[in-house]
Amino acid sequence: MNEFVFGNAEIIAPGILDRFALPAPVAGVAPYGGGLINATFLVTAGDARYILQRINGSVFPEPERIISNLSVLAEHAATHAESGLRIPTLIPARDGLSFVRDAGGGLWRLMEFIPDTRGLTRIDDPEQAREVGRILGRFHVLVSDLPVERLAVTLPGFHVTPNHLECFERVLAAYTAVRSEALSQAIARVTARRTRVDVLEAARRDGRLPIRVIHGDPKLDNILFDRVTGRAVSLIDLDTVQAGLVHYDIGDCLRSCCNRRDGPGGAGFALDLCRAILGAYAHETDGLLDAAEIELLYDAIRLIPFELALRFLTDHLEGDRYFRVTERGQNLHKAGIQLALVEDIETKEREIRDIVAACFGGGGVGPRDRRCGKSVDNG
Ligand code: GN1
Ligand code: MG
Fold this sequence. Notes:
The protein is α+β, with helices and mostly antiparallel strands.
């Protein structure tokens, strides 16, 4: 029976790995990646590598839904080989299920580690940014004919910003500890922006925006690049693939990929990377987004980092219960970075709106400006 213990937080329940149908004995296991929610391990067995994860049951109310969505998505992708997008395969358990449960009810899954790929910690050149735009676009095109009803909701209200604001305000009202200077500043910056948080949800409620299948978390960490060609080949971390707005994905992708962290407050929104990502995305999706969706892209680019700031800040006030931290203060620090990013995005609103118009052809009707996706340079 294999048993692995890594510090206090990272423990693999006894015998878990033995219950998966691996073709070779396990040779190594180590904690892996920087995920803040699930526990993640890299497993080596024979010549192959695998990713073992315990789904965080306090975040995902019904972890089986994640597994079932993954199967739906894999099946769908198999009928669309032309997309070229690689979906990590689940390794079945010996009992034939796609996951195993530990004695405490925790759900574990094992997935192939897509070989010959690597992740990037930051984007250094516009070609990488174009790859990001292409893969996100390819994903949205791939799922555009997958009916949203086929996917279960894995994380209800995930990107519903007004709910996150409400939760923040409730937690703040009950917060009685002394407020540090950094905390007071973050609260003031949030409070100054509390009026525009409904922009996407109002459009969603009014039926102005189509509900699509989305990834939910397409940050840079979740994109795999071919080691040799540099092409983006896979979008991983498919736990939050569910019905939503395309804005959640575009906002999340840009807040993660375009933050050069070089401005005041440790953030800086790189317009050249934004142009490269959106240009390649528009080229790849070629008319998928409608005029109303395009109209609200700037709002999404501003709102999703704001939402993440709210989520980090709320978690800080609640004593770090949601996002994994290694020390007190990390959530507050991360909230500060996202808020600085929001401020920088606000100062660049005109330029970002111009980029959206150039990439998507203004109101979303008429031909795209193809140059945007092909020859992007700094500026
Ligand atoms: C969480 O666990 P991870 O790192 O894949 C979070 C995302 C945040 C991200 C910030 C389900 O993702 O929404 O953007 O942290 N995932 C969930 O780093 O809340
Ligand atoms: Mg994630």
